[in-house]
């Protein structure tokens, strides 16, 4: 039995039995509570409540000026919330898992979550049109419906969804707890980093956390669709493989190779025919070989006819026909 760490890199012989999460009562209650919190944040910003006042106080505090030594590190740390780099990193990990477990579910879950993220968060961003702190026009204003696109925070919501997928797809409770803690820490740090840099209001970040959590909680509703999509993709793959096998089997040689008759064999067959031994069978065999190699044959039993216009040679008078007497000379016979 292999006990080294590289044993886990081997592909499993059979796909494991993976039980997809279902929408339990506990999860449904969390989804309802998060949705209520999401709507409350949106309402508080729309009516310019105390939350907007807190946004302005944090913005005027200018954290990037209070702790400038953190700026260089946080400029790189915030990349963990950008959609492109994080999607590529997580997709590579989930792609290896899909290959190892003979299933497309990890990649399909990631694609579904990112699609939901782009649709829901993007629609709210464009619909509310809030301006960021660097583009604010009036102190104390909510800066809503002004053509912006920063409410909710896309970096924060993307960090919650992308890293939270790892915890959602964990196969053991222990791994799920550890990955949940890691994803929560990363998403919390990314959100606060955007506030530190000054690209988002504090309420943007809070709404981004809620938006990402809603997507993770709603994923069990899409599990049947993901299972059907995986089955359809595997069916298409099997049809494509069967079509390729059929094409390969159809590529067979059309002609059968003919045997090669050497010149020595042709001379031997001709000698046998001339001697008259086994004339019928040898003649047929020689004719078949000659036809196969386009060599004209001459039948020994039937003489060739003379060409038209030529005179056939007459038999010598002294030699009669075979089996008949020679005719006497016509002139007188003189004694000698």
Automatic annotation (TrEMBL):
InterPro entries: PAP2/HPO (IPR000326), PAP2/HPO_sf (IPR036938). Keywords: Membrane, Transmembrane, Transmembrane helix. Residues 298-336 are annotated as: Disordered. SMART domains: acidPPc. Residues 105-220 form the Phosphatidic acid phosphatase type 2/haloperoxidase domain. Pfam families: PAP2 (PF01569). Signal peptide: none annotated. It comes from the Bacteria. The chain crosses the membrane at residues 28-53, 73-95, 107-128, 150-171, 178-199, 205-222. The keyword Repressor does not apply. This is Phosphatase PAP2 family protein. It comes from Streptomyces cyaneofuscatus.
